[in-house]
Design brief:
The protein is an alpha+beta fold and 189 residues long. It contains 4 helices and 11 strands; from the N terminus they run βαββαββαββαββββ. The strands form 3 sheets. The chain has a 5-stranded antiparallel β-sheet. A 4-stranded antiparallel β-sheet has the order 7-5-4-8. A hairpin with a 5-residue loop joins β4 and β5. The relative contact order is 0.25. The model has no long low-confidence stretch (mean pLDDT 93).
């Protein structure tokens, strides 16, 4: 699986890592550790036509200014294994940027994930997934909610993450607003 994400800047990166650690220490929730970097996702699919995606994203991002992001509150996606997350506020600028990125990447994506399509996209920062039970959800949500998350910050990066079958993720390609492509790595497991 591959996805285009924005990595969180400091100090929010470390604050999410502290929440992950607290969730592991208090509730035994550790699956999220397979994703090493706190982020929110723009688009996810089985795989990208990577060379062309790099070229087109670099051109787009080189001409983009940094953008404002607001994160406010905690919520969850329901199901047999709920996903607990911090809500990224869907501003018009963020939605417009997502629409552009979705349109650029979807033709280059094998099996784009429909949950990331513009009409249904809910940008979020995942706190727990695959090991959170519905019965634990109220207590876990209450614990996170006590921190009253309400952050505003500027983001200037996009990263293509690759994810192995065991859930471990790695950074494959990094872009910076105003610069374009800044690094490209081979992910070996």
């Amino acid at each position: 699986m591959q996805g285009l994400v924005t990595l969180l800047p400091q100090p929010y990166h470390d604050q999410v890592k502290l929440l992950w650690q607290g969730l592991e220490d208090r509730f035994g929730l550790s699956y999220i550790r397979a994703t090493p970097q706190p982020h929110f996702s723009w688009q996810i699919g089985e795989s990208y036509q990577l060379a062309e995606a790099k070229r087109q994203l670099s051109r787009l991002v080189r001409n983009l200014p940094a953008f404002e992001v607001r994160v406010k509150g905690v919520a969850f996606f329901p199901g047999p294994l709920p996903v607990l997350y911090l809500k990224v506020v869907r501003s018009q600028k963020l939605m417009d940027l997502h629409y552009r990125l979705w349109g650029l990447l979807t033709p280059l994506t094998e099996q784009p994930h429909p949950y990331y399509a513009p009409k249904v996209w809910h940008p979020h920062i995942t706190l727990a997934m695959n090991d959170l039970s519905p019965s634990a959800l109220p207590e876990v949500t209450g614990w996170v909610d006590q921190f009253k998350v309400d952050w505003e910050f500027e983001c200037a990066n996009f990263t293509i993450l690759g994810q192995y079958a065991d859930g471990i993720a790695c950074e494959q390609v990094c872009f910076e607003c105003g610069k374009g492509l800044i690094s490209s790595n081979v992910c070996d497991q």
